[in-house]
Structures are given as C-alpha cells and as structure tokens.
Amino acid sequence: MNAGESVLCIEHGGTYRAALPEFLANVTREFAAALEFPNTGVVVAEARGPEFVCVDWCGGVPTVP
Fold first, then answer.
1. Cα dist from 63 to 10, 37, 39, 40, 43, whole Å
2. pTM of full prediction above 0.85
3. Which residues make Cβ contacts (< 8 Å) with residue 41, sequence separation at least 6?
4. How much is the pLDDT for 59?
5. Residues near 64 by Cβ (< 8 Å), separated by ≥ 6?
6. Of 14, 15, 19, 45, which is most buried by a Cβ count within 10 Å?
7. Residue 20 contacts residue 43 (beta carbons within 8 Å)
8. Residue 16 to residues 24, 28, 34, 37, 58, Cα–Cα distance (Å)
9. φ and ψ at 29, to 5 degrees?
10. Residue 1: what pLDDT?
11. How far apart, in Å, are the Cα atoms of 30 and each of 1, 8, 45?
C-alpha cells in the first residue's frame, strides 16, 4: 500500500472488536468492548508514522494516546 491509498474491510463487529486492538495504537480491548458496534458500523483509521490510529469507532473516538 502506498501513502494516500485507502483500504476497505468488511467484517463482523465481533471480529473487529477482537482484532483491531492488536493493530490500532490507540484502541484497547476495553474500549472496543465498551462501545456498541451496530449493523453497518464504521471504523476509520489513519496511518500516522509507523502505526495506525483510530479516528472514529462507530461515532466514538478513542482517547488512549
């Protein structure tokens, strides 16, 4: 993937709750479990330097630095 490119992943909310805390620097398992993940929920992440961070988790924003 090159800078500026986008990726779209479609999956079940449970899979996102289990997997994304491993890949997103500012998402903890506690955060992922605490928020609703409705049908058609959306998670938006951005590459920032060497890591990926979540900027929107179904309308919520993680506050972990």
1. 24, 18, 24, 23, 15
2. no
3. 13, 16, 58
4. 87
5. 25, 26, 27, 28, 31
6. 45
7. yes
8. 11, 12, 13, 9, 11
9. -60, -35
10. 59
11. 29, 24, 18
Kindly list the distances between the CA atom of residue 38 and the CA atoms of 13, 28, 33, 45, 65, in Å, as whole numbers in the listed order: 8, 19, 12, 18, 25
In angstroms, the CA 57 to CA 36 distance is 9
Identity of residue 65: P
Structure-token pair, residue 29:
């398992």
Distance separating alpha carbons of residues 22 and 25, to the nearest angstrom: 8
pLDDT at 35: 83
60: helix, coil or strand? strand
Q: Quick one: tokens of 39?
A: 């049908």
Contacts of 49 (CB under 8 A, 6+ apart): none
